[in-house]
Amino acid sequence: MDYSKYLPLSEASFYMLAALTEPSHGYAIMQKVEAMSGGAVTIGPGTMYGAFNTLEKQKLIAKVAEEDRRKIYALTDLGRQVLAEQVRRLEVMVQSAHAALKLGRAA
Amino acid sequence: MRKVWKWWWAWQDREHEQWLAAQSRQGLHLRSMDSLGLLHRFEQGAPADYVYRWDFKISGAKGDYRQLFTDAGWELVGEVAGSWLCWRKQAGPCLKPEIFTDRASQLAKYRNLFLTIVPGLSLLPMVILDRNLWQDIQAGSQIATGVFGLSLFSIALSAFASLGIWRRMRQI
User: Fold this and answer.
1) Which of B20, B37, B118, B133 is nearest to B75 (CA)?
2) pLDDT digits (tens, 9 = 90+) for A32-91
3) Residue pair A11/A37 in contact by the 8 Å Cβ criterion
4) What is the count of structural domains for chain B?
């Protein structure tokens, strides 16, 4: 399957998908992402709300419940595959860059 | 309670946010606004370091949208024309909260604003300007002249808005 139309994921989408491996609502995702990234990544509510709509339209996430006006989302199978493909591509990039930087230092 | 009138355009939202923050540092905190966004009602209190941020949302502050902002610690302090929402959050010495944390979502806000106001303003004259209108104007009809004037105004406003929004988007 070709995942190119979903990739690359924005930083916010990437972390949201990673956080949604367990179903969560928006604020829980914000906290998870901060914890996951060691405080390096913060997602504002405006950015997150827009990303929810986009990811839901792309069927990468789906609403599974609603509690007190908080929508609870979960990763779909497609979402999981897209996240895995993004991680694979990032690994290739990181390895290539490490090799290139090492070569640059040696010369 | 202090009332302050201030004229500003929708694409001057960043400047308006700075102005509101400056008022708060002097102890004047926005409590509400009129539906046109010109009359500001401030409450006197202790000076505070607040961040104000405008979001543009045509369906207003409802449901899960409002809940998400509230959960994240933002307070709704102004609502203009049902679609401009003024959010406020306490800032810290090394903490500047933002409602939009990437470029794409910031740009999307102005894209939505553009698509909401510009097509309407430019289409209106196309609908009402027709050949009969010219004949009526030549025949000395004041209504026809008024309609023509209104159309010109609408086109000028549309161009002005486009320029303002375009400039704002270039700064992002």
Assistant:
1) B20
2) 999 999 999 999 999 999 999 999 999 999 999 999 999 999 999 999 999 999 999 999
3) no
4) 2
Residue B64, amino acid: D
- Say yes or no: B18 and B63 in one domain: yes
Residues of B with CB under 8 A from a CB of A: 53, 55, 63-69, 71-72, 74, 97-102, 104-105, 108-109
Could you tell me if the ipTM is greater than 0.95?
no
Cα dihedral sign, A92-A93-A96-A97? negative
Tokens of B148: 């023509």
CA dist., res. B17 & res. B72, Å (int):
19
d(CA A3, CA B112): 28
Domain that holds residue B132: 103-170
Domain membership flag for residue B66: yes
Say if residue B35 is in the same domain as residue B80: yes
Strand ranges, E, within chain B: 2-5, 28-33, 39-44, 50-56, 75-80, 84-90
Q: Do A49 and B68 touch (CB under 8 A)?
A: yes
Return d(Cα B94, Cα B117) in angstroms, integer. Answer: 37
Q: What is the pTM of this model?
A: 0.91
